[in-house]
Amino acid sequence: MLSLTSNTLKPFSSFHPSFLLLSKPSLKPISATFSNPFPPPSQQQLYQPFRPPPSPLPNQFRSLDVKSRLEVLADRLGLWFEYAPLIPSLIQEGFTPPSLEEATGISGIEQNHLVVAAQVRDSLIQSNTDPAVVSAFDLGGAELLYEIRLLNAQQRSAAASYIAANGLDARGVQDLARSVRDFPRRRGDKGWESFDYTQPGDCLAFMYFRQSREHKKPSEQRTAALEQALSAAVTERAKGRVLEELNAEGEGEITGEGEIGEEVRVPVVRLKIGEVAEASTVAVLPVCKAGERDKGLEEAPRECWTEGEFGVVVAEKGWARWVVLPAWEPVAGLGKGGVVVSFSDARVLPWRTNRWYKEEAILVVADRDRKEVSVDNGFYLVGGDGGDLKVERGSALKETGVEESLGTVVLVVRPPKDAVDDQLSDEDWE
After folding, report:
1. Where is each Rubisco accumulation factor 1 helix turn helix domain found (predicted)?
2. Do both 329 and 367 map to the same domain?
3. Has residue 7 been placed in a domain?
4. 30-34, 99-103, 217-221: which is most confident
5. What range does the domain containing 68 cover?
6. Please, which of 2, 62, 181, 304 could form a disulfide with 315 given CB 3.0 to 4.6 Å?
7. How confident is the model at residue 271 (pLDDT cuts 50, 70, 90)?
8. Contact between residue 156 and residue 123 where contact means Cβ atoms under 8 Å apart
9. What is the mean pLDDT of residues 183-201?
């Protein structure tokens, strides 16, 4: 799936130079004294001489020539944030990242990390971050500070304090920064209000809390995610919410806002905008419409794979509609029988309580290899009276003597909502 993000640029404002219009002076008779109608310009300097900006280099490096600067970088003389400014200074001298890598052994990626991390460190100092926190990144901190580059000044300071206090590694810092940026657009998710946006630890805890709901209950994966959430949480309210989820036993698991029935293991998730792009693993599944009946369900491809160095997806047969979903546990567990059925109205499903008051399209993920109607509270794809596909509860099918369905429902996916606008404002940029 190709995901494109389009940003509309504001047109440049038209600039019309203002011209000073002078009227022609009227002629006057010659007199003994001459009065100049145009007073001489004031004695001020109209053009200021060019003054180069102050050197960004530390004092100990300002007197060094190009060769000496290269030696400092090659030998890593000093702390990383001290020699990092040498990189842009050498770029101004005509070097390129590849030529710098050849001369110093510092790769282009590392050059970028050093320069950006040094800027992040400077912003922490300007934000009056605790000097002890800043000094925690003196040794090997470039990789960590680089990961919080997209946060605003206040978020950077709070994140740096949390990183230093908890000794996070690069992967942990990546998750922390992502959770802070992602938190505002998760408004409305279950438990969101119990976590404090101003606390990076609570943002990270909520990310783990949300991930726990992608696993079956009970399961080791779910418990592990909740334990991570409890460890990351900072506020007492957040900890209490996670403990409440950990201590819950014997309750039906439903992931999402709808409820299908008691003790149901079918998750209902609302897909988030950008969630597929952020997923580390995805699944590609064929899609058929409910109106295509059982014929469309059976004809959908059962197998696809990747080929070549670019991982081109190839299916066993041609098919018109596909969907890419994050590899949530129910999706990842599908074999060759995985298929998706699209319904234009969620109210056709046998919800215990109808929580939607308007039409909402949904995707029903089913396993065609599991056709036996075995669980009363399970949900199964069957043909309706008019021939269209529909979802029925196992108990209802058993009452009518139906023992075999077209497939077992494993997941219901709701469409994304418009995300909360959490883009950085102009004043947030450093």
Report:
1. 65-124
2. yes
3. no
4. 99-103
5. 59-180
6. 304
7. confident
8. yes
9. 92
φ/ψ of 129, rounded to 5, equals -65, 145
The DSSP symbol for 424 reads P
- CA–CA gap between residue 352 and residue 343 (Å, rounded): 18
Residue 307 is assigned to a structural domain of this protein? yes
**Residue 151 sits in the same domain as residue 86:** yes
Residue 289 lies in a domain: yes
Indicate the length of the chain as a whole number: 430
Sign of CA dihedral 231, 236, 238, 239: positive
Whether 336 and 375 share a structural domain: yes
- First CA to last CA across the chain, in angstroms? 34
Rounded CA gap, 358 and 415, in Å? 13
Residue 30 is assigned to a structural domain of this protein? no
Instruction: For CA atoms 220, 223, 226, 231, give the dihedral sign.
Output: negative
The answer to whether 302 and 350 are in contact (CB under 8 A) is no
Cα atoms in the 13 Å half-sphere on the side-chain side of 94? 1
pLDDT-derived band at 201 (thresholds 50, 70, 90) equals very high
Residue 150 near residue 119, CB atoms below 8 Å:
no
| Token representation of residue 104 | 């110093």
Q: Do residue 306 and residue 404 come from a single domain?
A: yes
Which residue from 164, 161, 176, 104 is spatially nearest to 140, judged by alpha carbons?
164
Over residues 6-61, the pLDDT tens digits come to: 444 334 333 433 333 333 344 444 444 445 555 555 555 455 554 545 446 677 77
Count of the separate structural domains present in the chain? 3
| Claim to verify: residue 327 and residue 400 sit in the same structural domain | yes
Residue 304 and residue 387 in one domain: yes
pTM flag (> 0.90): no
